[in-house]
Amino acid sequence: MKxxxxxxxxxxxxxxxxxxxxxxxIASAAKTHTNNQVQxxxxxxxxxxxxxASPAATPGAPLYxxxxxxxxxxxxxxxxxxxxxxxxxxxxxxTAVPTPPSTPSATPTHPPQPTPSPSPQSGGSTPYRYFAAGxxxxxxxxxxxxxxxxxxxxxxxxxxxxxxxxxxxxxxxxTKEKAYAFFLGMSSRESTLNAxxxxxxxxxxxxxxxxxxxxxxxxxxxxYLPETDVPEMTQFxxxxxxxxxxxxxxxxxxxxxxxxxxxxxAAGYTGTEWLRHSLIGYNTGFVTGASESWLVQYSDExxxxxxxxxxxxHLYDTQFTYTGASDVDRSQPWGWY
Length: 337
Known about the structure:
Layout: H1 2-50, H2 137-146, H3 149-162, H4 164-171, H5 176-190, E1 198-199, E2 206-207, E3 212-213, H6 240-243, H7 246-266, H8 271-284, H9 292-311
Antiparallel strand pairs: 1-2, 2-3
Helix pairs in contact: 3-5, 3-7, 4-7, 5-9, 7-8, 8-9
């Protein structure tokens, strides 16, 4: 009986030990299962981050970017989207930016042109030159052609002022205004107030508003008859810088006409016939021998054009007339003289 109790006690102890071992095994298995779940959850979260999922910002709060500094409390930093370099062929074509039109240069094509004004000139040759000495011939020619009709008017009147005493004596004008009108009429007949007009060749080679010919100049051609009978006025040499200067060409045109006025006076002409034959000499080289028809077409046309400028008050403005103009009164071409 005693042995039976001892056996039951030992069996109970063994069962208790087995129970303890079993409990420990169950607890260990449960702990291992929990750890595996946590690790699996972490792996899944990392997978979502690697796939580009962005954490949601607090509703209603502005997004925050790391370049602005530390994220304020309650806001999560949102990384800017990376710039993906486009592959070749997918790049957009650059937009052409139109080039604004260039502003015209302040540098003129031609040299600056002084605006002539009817003011007295001093003696000597320099005051009669329009462009400065040393200006290139091409610049002089371009500048002369660019002069407006009004500028040519004023330049003619300036040259008349500069030689007024000899003009009054050898052409017989009673006032400067009549002399202005006469040379404006002459310029209208010869060039329509074009200071850059060049025509003819040889002795007929002429230039400027009054179409002064080569023969008016000194040293032009030894075969030309000399014009040394106007000592009151300078006879410029025939060189391009003189011939093409618009001021000198007008001055030499006036001198050339006075040369023929002396011849017409010596031939016995007086009054308006004196002017008519002086002009014919300027045009043909001879104060006598021209037909009456040509005197009317050339000399009397100049007288009528001069009357238009004087009678209509167009001595200084932009208005001008021309050969054959219908509004010019030709009934008394020299009535104003």
